[in-house]
Amino acid sequence: MNQTVATSRAKETEDLNPFHIAATQFDRAVVYLPRMQSGLIDFLKRPAKTVTLEFPIEMDDGSVRVFTGHRVLHSRVRGPGKGGIRYHSDVTADEVRALASWMTWKCAVADIPFGGAKGGVACNPKELSETVLRRITRRYISGLGDNIGPYVDIPAPDVYTDARTMAWVYDTYDVMHPGRNNLPVVTGKPVDMGGSLGRHEATARGCFFAVRQALARGAVPGLSDIKGARVAVQGFGNAGAIAATLFQEAGARILAVSDTQGGIFHDQGIDLTTAAWHKSERKTVVGTPGTQTISNNDLLALECDILIPAALEAQIRADNAEKVRARFVAEAANGPTTPAADRILFARGIPVLPDILANSGGVTVSYFEWVQNIENEKWDEAEVNGKLRTKMERATDAVLDKQTATNELVRAGKLATHTGPSSDRIDLRTAALLVAIERVASVALERGIWP
Ligand code: NAD
Questions:
Q1: 110 closest CA partner among 440, 333, 400, 391
Q2: CB 78 within 8 A of CB 113
Q3: Cα(first)–Cα(last) distance of the chain, in Å?
Q4: Hey, CA dihedral for 153, 208, 284, 274, is it positive or negative?
Q5: From the CB of 194, is ligand 1 less than 6 Å away?
Q6: Ligand 1 pocket: which of 159, 293, 331 to mutate (most atoms <8 Å of CB)?
Q7: How is 55-80 classified by DSSP, letter by letter?
Q8: Which end of the chain, N or C, is less surrounded by CB atoms within 10 Å?
Q9: pTM of the full structure
Q10: Alpha-carbon span 310 to 323, nearest angstrom
């Protein structure tokens, strides 16, 4: 069965709406917060604001096309909104809502003073020229007006946006707000215009630090080190390609990587430099000399130690979670595992290091960039990476400690639980959400409900 058919069958049987998935994850976690008021839970769950824009763009051939963009501010309880901008044909308001809520929890797990937000424009950047992408960015950012700002909501890169896009975001905002330091309005900028050293690699590097800490703490029985681990990475963009390189540098064997066209496999380890060169020349890793072509489904089902989904949402679902043969899943992507798949993997003893922890390195260094911009400072790369490592290890420790503490309370009969076969233990996603929700709720209560 090809991947498209498999995915469409999964859609028939499983609710893959990202916002519903985010809500299910949230609901599973709040079961373990029996003392939290239902009104507060409701407030924390719902996005604070959704802005939708329809705007015309003159295309290269002189025709006019209307594009739809969204920006969702989920929460500003702990600070201004923070979240990437995605350019992808599947962008919907619900996807952006889900991604914005994950940003709230991610910033709280990482313990940085931001709330959660996200943005996206429904378009296929692969079919658009640089000029059209720049026009889209300028219309989108000018349309958002003061819904973004250095102390309001701060965008960053996400799928199919990059430092170049962030430079246009900054320039547009700066033209509209002259006479002040606007650098902190957006992060992930080019380094020579206020971007932070280390930001480009930060999502992958953070994932690496979190995985290393989780393994060292015994999260995966019998696997204590990245060195020697067999790794498969789905997605070969910012998060995936750099994660593959960092894991390989630490002594892991990268068995497989993939992109939208499919995957490549080599049992002795992929030559990542050749794969990257092939991708830049041919727009795909498929066909990299010396590798065997596999499908994305094959990659997800590979026998390996660590599986790193680093592409899009809902890749590990009810219909393929039984086939996963990794010992550990580390979510570099946002939302790659559905709630049904979470249950299956948990029951099979495969821990999942959740997105709100595993890929929080990107927003953490975005925070460092924001601080540097406000202070007109430039930290060297070693300083950035050192601070990132500290943050990632602390966040990982907080999540593992919460899992242990919650399980002890549940076993002692002191806490309400899910119903179902795995109800006496919580998974790492629920533990991470508990850390995050408690941190946001605590600040919400300290601030008080206005007025
Ligand atoms: P990117 O655009 O740089 O790369 C995306 C990659 O995924 C590309 O190689 C693309 O070919 C591949 N891909 C897309 N659909 C696929 C599919 N169906 N199967 C296999 N591969 C597929 O994007 P990115 O920034 O690396 O983001 C990837 C994931 O990481 C997203 O979920 C994003 O939200 C998340 N993330 C990114 C950052 C960041 O700083 N860039 C931070 C946190 C989380």
A1: 391
A2: yes
A3: 57
A4: positive
A5: no
A6: 159
A7: EEEE-TTS-EEEEEEEEEEEE-SSSS
A8: C
A9: 0.96
A10: 18
